[in-house]
């Protein structure tokens, strides 16, 4: 699995996030959750969850989206929706609007990232 340096993020580490250590390790322990934060930070705007899934698929497969099976992208989307987005919301790092399927960094996350 090839990973471009562009997507490697040290934006949050368990040592620098201002929440309980156990929660920080749990939330930030998953690479896909770190990628969601990094993706939103790089784009500087809210994004549809499907777009984030597309970017993760391209990153994980080290390929253009058109070269990745649609089922793989769908699995990533469902994994984000069911596992990763709820954890990031609970930690106060992102907001998720289910009706519009939009994800955004919270003011707390933006403040922390701008330091």
User: Total number of helical segments?
Assistant: 5
* Order of the strands making up the biggest sheet: 1-3-2
Report the C-alpha radius of gyration, rounded: 14 Å
The CATH class designation is Mainly Alpha
Give the helices and strands as they follow along the chain.
Answer: HHEHHEEH
Describe the secondary structure blueprint for this structure.
Layout: H1 21-28, H2 31-43, E1 47-48, H3 49-61, H4 70-90, E2 94-97, E3 102-105, H5 107-114
Antiparallel strand pairs: 1-3, 2-3
Helix pairs in contact: 3-4
Short recap of the structure:
This protein has helices spanning 21-28, 31-43, 49-61, 70-90, 107-114, and strands at 47-48, 94-97, 102-105.
Describe the protein.
By secondary structure, this protein is mainly alpha-helical. The protein has a single domain (15-114), classed as Arc Repressor Mutant, subunit A, CATH 1.10.10. Helix content is 55%, strand content 9%. The chain is built from five helices and three strands, in the order H-H-E-H-H-E-E-H. It has helices at residues 21-28, 31-43, 49-61, 70-90, 107-114; strands at 47-48, 94-97, 102-105. The chain has a three-stranded antiparallel beta sheet. A hairpin with a 4-residue loop joins strand 2 (94-97) and strand 3 (102-105). The longest helix is centred in the last third of the chain and has 21 residues, at 70-90. The radius of gyration is 14 Å and the shape is globular. Mean pLDDT is 84; it is low at 1-9.
